[in-house]
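Appendix C: a fully annotated inverse folding record. The material below is reproduced so that readers can follow the format used throughout the book. The structure is listed first as tokens, followed by the designed sequence.
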């Protein structure tokens, strides 16, 4: 659903004195009607004091009436809201011994409204709306400009609030203007706001709140407005990387901008144009050891990116809008994957480009009915080429050399579409429609491991030429397939009383690969209840079912290794004396491997439930405490269905090698307690913070995960790979009366776990996943994470009179101000000389200069 900003409309205000028996003094009463004179039932009416604080909230009854009692004399503001209508506000004056009667009229909401950017003083308010949870994380355009955002990547900045264990097989879901998309479709200056965890149990979307990012983009305006951003970063001003002997020579130049305005004469046609050119000339740091000794070098790792898009809006009449957009994106990365223990020759070169066309049609069909249609068509290619075509060399925990053996070429032509109907009547706001998140024709040319990969348990084994396995992939590398995913949904937002609201919905899933025999139907329900008359406290809860989606890679693997295309060959040096290098005759005698889907397969299902309390602690800030639990069943994993059996280590079927079977027998359980703050507690500071105490256990890390021993996958039950017991995040901005702005972003996390392995293939399945006896999975504690980023800026107003809207903003950003060494995950291979150590670290302190011109 595409969101649209409500606008203040003309209200008809009648004031007269009335002294009636049984009516108390200082009473505000009124009726809410639409433009036809019909009363509006179940609308929210808020009474605001002169300082903006929420005095009371109520809902109109069956007669469209509302009432507030026992108010002190003075000036107040009434604000009325109902979905499908424009918001209305009016100011009233309450005098002694008087009853104020108000008649307010709401106009039907149209979609040709001028975009209005949220005020910096917009304050979060607890509300008895099931969708208005206060543990949402949201930043608007103004906050995006004042926060320290690395490389203008606002998605990465907000991603800290996601839950990695809830994203599923297909990754994070990106929702743009209410519709699932591959990308935002606009550059950073054309983004209005970004949200995470808004209405977590909505039936409109496939994933729960902390597994999706919602973005609202700018629309066309009847006047010309624009933004030009320039970003510069140079390593001369940065600290040295912890693993670099010589300070890397890096520089980033980033130019981005957007322009919106009228197209021709009149106000019916408008446009938005956005462009971005990005040159990130960075270096990767290699800190490994090979047969010649320590290897510590800086390797150029340039990333060049271009994006351009244009969108045209046409408003033929009141309540109707059509838009059409085109975008093109291209990115190249050299020496991708190099760094840590990966040597320069084991990198890849990456290229990606995409064309996309978006079409939308929105129409208010009546005072009660709104239809929103959106679809897109696109085409992209993503070739990845190994720098070297020599066989790969993998020495456990020491280095990865030779060729990357990662050449893969992917093409895709795709269609996405959504049609949402919104019907408002009385106390009900119903949404229903069809969501087609993916209909794609995909082509995969999988040339990975085409020259083979030799794996060694230790550096000594490598030096003596004794690998434990050799993996080779051969055959027809090309497959094409049509993937289809279809969903339907229904949701009813029902206000039972002024202080109690509930949302009940259901979502239907279907896809042509990996689908269940029984159709996947996911019901969801959430509620909000506010006790007391002041309604400064809201009790909120919900429960919902969410089905996973596989994405294209598992489908590609099943089709590739079906016995007619590719064959995976594994030479197990543990059980047989193969030559090194292996001979063609020995390769020809290897039994072929294959890939199959468990006939009992079901789609992974997550049951999430939560309960919490929200409190308005100041007129412009809220505090929320929530418990969130989830249980995921039928989670994907892989096993070797033909794994060697101890003690002989012979495969049960000697005519085949590894038979990878994709199962849905995994399980995951998560519990977390969260404290969330949002708002503006003082005149100068606004922000949001979240602390989470969480624990997540599972026995699989996804569809490509193999257990240490395929005949005992239950032994892998342990901490999730993403389990962090403690997480604290803060995003805040200070403003000193237009003199300067100051932004801060703080992240403090406990460490993720590390899996400890022997480095050798003890059970003869070709993979070094074996753990020491009695050692659980993910038994080592990994490094914690501490990152403090700051932003200092000042905005200069240019021109006078009508030209005052021209502004130049200069900001200086410092990332990882404390220069804390944030190591990446430790090496858990006990045969490695680096056991218990990190070989890579996140960037050290970096400086970034931003210049932004607005008009």
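Designed amino acids, in order:
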């Amino acid at each position: 659903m595409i969101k649209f900003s409500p606008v203040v409309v003309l209200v008809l205000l009648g004031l007269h004195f009335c002294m009636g028996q049984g009516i108390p003094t200082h009473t505000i009463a009124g009726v809410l009607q639409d433009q036809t004179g019909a009363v509006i039932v179940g609308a929210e009416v808020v009474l605001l004091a002169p300082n903006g604080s929420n005095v009371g909230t109520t809902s109109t009854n069956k007669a469209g009436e509302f009432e507030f009692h026992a108010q002190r004399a003075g000036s107040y503001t009434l604000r009325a809201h109902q979905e499908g209508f424009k918001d209305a506000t009016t100011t009233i004056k309450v005098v002694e011994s008087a009853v104020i009667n108000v008649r307010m009229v709401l106009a039907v909401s149209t979609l040709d409204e001028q975009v209005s950017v949220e005020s910096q003083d917009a304050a979060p308010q607890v509300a008895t709306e099931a969708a208005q949870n206060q543990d949402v994380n949201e930043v608007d355009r103004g906050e995006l400009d004042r926060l320290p955002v690395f490389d203008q990547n606002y998605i990465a900045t907000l991603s800290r609030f996601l839950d990695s264990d809830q994203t599923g097989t297909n990754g994070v879901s990106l929702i743009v203007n209410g519709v699932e998309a591959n990308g935002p479709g606009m550059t950073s200056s054309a983004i209005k706001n970004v949200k995470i965890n808004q209405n977590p149990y909505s039936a409109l979307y496939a994933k729960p709140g902390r597994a999706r990012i919602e973005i609202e983009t700018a629309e066309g305006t009847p006047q010309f407005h624009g933004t030009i951003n320039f970003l510069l970063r140079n390593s001369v001003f940065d600290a040295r990387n912890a693993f670099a002997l010589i300070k890397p020579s890096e520089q980033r130049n980033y130019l981005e901008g957007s322009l919106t305005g009228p197209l021709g004469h009149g106000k019916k046609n408008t446009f938005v144009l956005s462009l971005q050119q990005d040159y990130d000339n960075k270096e990767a740091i290699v800190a490994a050891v090979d047969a010649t000794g320590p290897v510590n070098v800086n390797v150029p790792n340039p990333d060049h990116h271009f994006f351009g898009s244009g969108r045209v809006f046409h408003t033929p009449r009141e309540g109707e809008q059509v838009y059409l957009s085109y975008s093109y994106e291209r990115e190249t990365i050299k020496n991708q994957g190099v760094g840590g223990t990966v040597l320069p020759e084991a990198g890849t070169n990456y290229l990606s480009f995409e064309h996309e066309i978006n079409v939308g049609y929105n129409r208010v069909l009546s005072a009660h009915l709104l239809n929103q249609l959106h679809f897109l068509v696109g085409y992209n290619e993503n070739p990845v080429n190994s720098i070297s075509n020599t066989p790969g060399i993998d020495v456990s925990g020491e280095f990865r050399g030779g060729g990357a053996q990662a050449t893969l070429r992917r093409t895709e032509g795709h269609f996405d579409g959504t049609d949402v109907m919104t019907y408002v009547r009385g106390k009900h706001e119903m949404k229903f429609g069809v969501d087609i998140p993916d209909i794609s024709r995909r082509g995969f040319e999988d040339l990975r491991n085409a020259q083979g990969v030799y794996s060694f348990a230790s550096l000594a084994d490598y030096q003596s030429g004794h690998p434990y396995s050799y993996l080779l992939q051969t055959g027809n590398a090309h497959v094409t397939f049509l993937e289809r995913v279809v969903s339907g949904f229904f949701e009813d937002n029902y206000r039972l009383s002024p202080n109690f609201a509930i949302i009940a919905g259901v979502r239907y899933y279907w896809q042509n690969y990996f689908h269940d025999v029984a159709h996947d139907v996911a019901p969801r329900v959430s509620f909000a209840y506010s006790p007391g008359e002041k309604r400064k406290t809201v009790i909120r809860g919900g429960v919902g079912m969410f089905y996973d989606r596989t994405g294209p890679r598992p489908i590609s693997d099943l089709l590739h290794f079906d016995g007619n295309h590719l064959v995976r060959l594994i030479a197990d040096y543990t059980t047989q004396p193969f030559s090194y290098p292996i001979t063609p005759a020995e390769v020809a005698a290897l039994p072929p491997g294959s890939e199959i889907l468990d006939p009992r397969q079901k789609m992974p299902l997550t049951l999430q439930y939560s309960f919490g309390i929200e409190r308005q602690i100041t007129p412009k800030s809220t505090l929320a405490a929530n418990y969130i639990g989830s249980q995921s069943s039928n989670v994907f994993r892989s096993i070797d269905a033909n794994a060697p059996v101890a003690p002989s280590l012979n495969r049960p079927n000697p005519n085949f090698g590894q038979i990878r079977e994709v199962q849905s027998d995994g399980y995951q359980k998560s519990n977390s307690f969260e404290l969330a703050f949002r708002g503006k507690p003082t005149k100068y500071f606004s922000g949001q913070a979240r602390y989470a105490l969480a624990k997540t256990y599972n026995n699989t890390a996804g569809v490509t995960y193999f257990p240490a021993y395929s005949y005992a996958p239950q032994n892998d039950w342990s901490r999730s790979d993403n389990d962090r017991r403690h997480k604290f995040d803060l995003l805040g901005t200070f403003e000193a009366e237009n003199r300067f702005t100051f932004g801060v972003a703080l992240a403090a996390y406990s460490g993720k776990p590390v899996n400890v392995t022997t480095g050798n293939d003890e059970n003869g399945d070709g993979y070094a996943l074996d753990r020491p006896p009695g050692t659980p999975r993910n038994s080592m504690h990994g490094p914690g994470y501490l990152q403090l980023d700051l932003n200092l800026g000042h905005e200069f107003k240019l021109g006078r009179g009508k030209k005052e809207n021209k502004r130049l903003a200069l900001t200086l950003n410092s990332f990882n101000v404390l220069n804390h060494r944030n190591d990446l995950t430790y090496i858990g291979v006990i045969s490695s000389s680096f056991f218990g150590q990190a070989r890579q670290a996140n960037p050290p302190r970096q400086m970034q200069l931003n210049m932004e011109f607005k008009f």
